[in-house]
Amino acid sequence: MAAAAPALPVSLSGRFKGSFAYFTIKDRLPQILTRVIDTLHRHKNEFFEEHGEKGVEAEKRAISLLSKLRNELQTDKPVTPLEDELPDAALWNQYLDYQRNLSNGNGEPSWFQSPWLFVECYMYRRIHAALAQNPPIDNFDVFKEGKAQNFFESQEAVIGLCTYFQELLKNIKDLDEKQLQEELFKLLQVSLWGNKCDLSFSAGKDSSQKSSPLQSLENMVPYILVNDMEKLWSLLVNAKKSRTESNVRVDIILDNAGFELVSDLVLADFLLSSKLADEIYFHGKSIPWYVSDTTKHDFNWTLKQLQSANHMWMSRCGINWEGNLKKGVWVFCDHMFWTLPHDFSSMGGVAPDLYAELQMSNLLLFKGDLNYRKLTGDRKWEYTVPFHQALNKFHPAPLCSLRTLKSDTQVGLKPGQGEQIQASEPDWMVSGKYGVVQFDAGL
Question: How many degrees, rounded to 5, is the angle at CA 154 between CA 291 and CA 186?
């Protein structure tokens, strides 16, 4: 008889007073809701100008729903089923039932007693519902301004990166394998550290990238706790050599808009221009999510901003990237699964179409902390548990997480590595100072 799989560790949760999850639910989430309510207030005149009284009435109703939500969260009320008619409502309510059954009759799952990942996702879904249920302001993205501001405040870093990349393209055909590898590692690190700028992490306060990260890469290497860049290189080079008819495909599961997105687009362009990949699929969010996450609108808006910039290399990047989309070598997709509360080990059952799509890839690059939490089930793992084990049978294709640490889950470390950092830096798991480039070859 086969041995039973070891039980999974407990989910991170606001139950654990003093934990990062507890402080997030207690302080950060209410702050985000307050900012969302303020944003709607500030746009009242605009809603009136565009839609007349109907716009103002919709704004009032949305604010009332959001104030109610904030009150439920702050008083640790039970998490209530969704009452809207949006396409994913049934899946959410099934998941809520599942959480109810897990609580073994210990009452209804409430904000502080439930898994952190679930209630945090649930808050963003309720924010979406508050607007979606109130036309004519149902398409208003409450986070749009913050994302735009982050992009504009990171201008210098964007210019630095676009300039570096356009100079690199001039001689890319003359680079030998070693030089190509060095450039790939550089751009992977820029994409990794680009993940520092995260508006949900700072509850929407300024988190822009003020200077080009290229200068500081050398100094940052010691802060990469798991560095599997060599494995990525081998995988891409071997895929390129053994390619027959089929294209080498890389999928990037995006995280934040703003500077981070630009760093991901540069990495994607490098993969194509160096012939390490033939096509890139980008996966974004289908609704506004976690403050700064990239939607299709953010993706297209970013390309337009770059194209119209009065800086030669920025606009060159924007024009080329628009061209990649038109040629079909870049594809943007959004799937509702990315904004469900499930971790990725449920994808095969909940979204078999998306799982099958990812199986067609040669390499999946998962950006950011939330994707890492969903890859590893957002649990209290021992630091030394292998990444492969924490993925809990999620293996559609070889995958790699590029993540700066902003929540207290981390696996795949060497014995003693976590404890050693913990001794001198108690908040190492949530400060955004450390990162991982963590690879799993799959089955």
Answer: 100
H/E stretch holding 158 reads helix 155-170
On whether the CB atoms of residues 357 and 392 are closer than 8 A, the answer is no
Successive 10-residue mean pLDDT values, the chain, 443 residues: 76 96 98 98 98 98 98 97 97 95 79 97 98 98 96 94 97 97 97 85 74 85 98 96 87 97 98 97 98 98 98 98 98 98 98 98 98 98 98 98 97 98 97 97 87
Distance CA 291, CA 306 (A): 22
* Nearest C-alpha neighbor of 167 from the set 58, 312, 27: 312
Query: Which of helix, strand or coil describes residue 228?
Result: coil
Q: Minimal CA–CA distance to 201: which of 374, 13, 405, 34?
A: 405
Structure tokens at 93: 């309510």
Instruction: Report whether 165 contacts 270 (CB < 8 A).
Output: yes
Could you tell me if 371 and 338 are in contact, meaning their C-beta atoms sit under 8 angstroms apart? no
* DSSP structure string for 293-309: B-BHHHHHHHHHHHHT-
Burial class for 435, CB neighbours closer than 10 Å (0-12, 13-18, 19+): buried
Taking the C-alpha atoms of residue 387 and residue 12, their distance in angstroms, rounded to an integer, is 17
In contact, 303 and 321? CB cutoff 8 Å: yes
Using alpha carbons, list the distances in angstroms from residue 393 to 8, 361, 375, 382, 441.
12, 17, 10, 18, 12
- C-alpha–C-alpha distance, residues 307 and 294, integer Å: 18
Where do runs of H (alpha helix) occur along 311-432? 312-327, 347-350, 352-358, 368-375, 387-390, 417-424
Coil/strand/helix, residue 366: strand
The pTM assigned to this predicted structure is 0.97
User: Among 267, 247, 251, which Cα is nearest to 259's?
Assistant: 267
Neighbours of 243 (CB within 10 A): 13
**Exposure class string for 319-331: b at 16+ Cβ within 10 A, else e:** ebbbebeeeebbe
> Which amino acid belongs to residue 386?
P
Q: Measured between alpha carbons, how far is 430 from 404 in angstroms, rounded to an integer?
A: 9
Q: Give the length of the chain.
A: 443
- The rounded distance, in Å, linking the Cα atoms of 300 and 375 is 27
Contact at 8 Å (CB) between 429 and 20? yes
User: Which residue shows structure tokens 């605009």?
Assistant: 46
